[in-house]
Write a structure and sequence with these properties.
It is a single chain. The chain has a domain of 86 residues: Lipocalin (Beta Barrel). The protein is built from 3 helices and 8 strands. The radius of gyration is 34 Å and the shape is rod-shaped. Keywords: Signal.
């Protein structure tokens, strides 16, 4: 009986070892099938609302470095920039002192609105122009 008891004890140990190994393998397979956790990143569209009264700070004519004059205007709730008599191009506020066009031009006011930087000037002008134009306010 001692031999059978020893064999039975060995069988129990062996069975426990096999069960533990099977559980480890199951966990490893489960971990391999499950993609690693990724931190969630939320991206929201940047929106900025500007009231028409706030736009009055920018409704001036600005002479740019190539001699052209850029005029800012508004009609109801829409804001526009016009260069040397061309049709107005709608601009959209992205910050209190920044605007963009659908064509990709970026207009940034500096020095409390007295100066203006324009990236992709040609997108406003409709022809090849200065990639960056610096302008200063013209007297009214």
């Amino acid at each position: 009986m001692k031999v059978i008891g020893l064999s039975l004890a060995a069988a129990v140990v062996w069975s426990s070892a096999v069960t533990a190994y099977a559980q480890q393998q199951e966990q490893a397979i489960s971990a391999a099938e499950t993609p690693p956790a990724i931190d969630t990143v939320s991206v929201t569209a940047k929106r900025f609302h500007m009231e028409p009264i706030e736009f009055t700070d920018y409704e001036y004519a600005y002479r740019i470095s190539n001699g052209d004059v850029v005029n800012f205007s508004r009609r109801v709730l829409h804001f526009y920039v016009t260069i040397k008599g061309q049709p107005p191009v709608e601009i959209f506020p992205t910050a209190p002192d920044q605007f963009v066009t659908k064509g990709g031009a970026k207009l940034v006011f500096t020095e409390n609105g007295d100066a203006l930087n324009i990236d992709h000037y040609e997108a406003i002008q409709g022809a090849s122009g200065l990639p960056v134009a610096t302008v200063q306010e013209t007297p009214k």
